[in-house]
Automatic annotation (TrEMBL):
It is a multi-pass membrane protein. Pfam families: BPD_transp_1. Its main location: membrane. Keywords: Cell membrane, Membrane, Transmembrane, Transmembrane helix, Transport. It is found in: Cell membrane. CDD domains: TM_PBP2. PROSITE patterns: ABC_TM1 (PS50928). InterPro entries: BP-dependent_transpt_permease (IPR050366), MetI-like (IPR000515), MetI-like_sf (IPR035906). This is ABC transporter permease. Residues 92-281 form the ABC transmembrane type-1 domain. The lineage of its organism: Bacteria, Bacillati, Actinomycetota, Actinomycetes, Micrococcales. GO terms for cellular component: plasma membrane.
Amino acid sequence: MSEQNPPRLEAVPRRPRRSPRWLAAFVRHPSAIYGSTVIVLLLAGAALSYVWTPYDPQRANPYDQWLAPSFEHLLGTDNIGRDIFSVLLVGARVTVGVAVGSALVAAVVGIGLAALGALTARWLREGVAVLVDVLIAFPTLLIAMMLASAFGGSLLVVVLAVGFSFGVNIGRVSRPELRRVRRADFVLAGRAAGRGPVRNLTTHLLPNVAPVFIVQLSWAMAVAILAEAGLSYLGYGAPSNTPSWGRMLAELQSYIGIHPWSVLWPGLAITLTVLAFNLLGDAIRDVTDPRLTRAPVVTA
């Protein structure tokens, strides 16, 4: 009796994993391409300024006042002979620091208010809703100026003011989303399995409202950059010895009729950066929100 060889099992080749549909749409979205490109350049410039700048941004040279853009000075020099390109590079640190710091503060405040307004008892939810409606009535710049008047102008004041005020807005926008998700079957199943509210929040609720948070945080970064520039322009932002794009505008505004290009560069940097964060937020919303019925993005 001959032994029968067992059948050989052939390995089934695995299909290559496809990238998520939203990621493919994101990399083709024109707003995402522009926003990501500008933000990467901003981060690269801020990082580069720690190790190299063409000239010392703090050094004044009276003999190099108002030099036009050239190969030696790419963007020219200002009223005290500083290289404008070097000052812009160092000023990018302030922009990145304020944007990231404000986003972190806004995330903590927004998640806290949204959780209190959606996952607690009814009386507490209604109290949080009233508190949010009161706080959201105060403009960001007004809160920042009040804090700067009380504690002195600094970047920390700008970060706290912008982060808190926009965190209130994030809490107001995210609260209905959390209340909608909390009634989903998988959340109810988790509660029936004995999961506590904190675990349900971190495991199920926050991941499902993450697109809303990300979009709001990208807009918070844009507002933070504008607020820092505006407060520095008014003298409430970065200290006088810290290069800042808003402070550059304040220092050079009186020369706009004589040397307009000197004011053009910091103004253009602020405009392009704020536009990049806003468009990036719009692109994330377009590709992650299934309720939006937009026409597909046509690329060349």
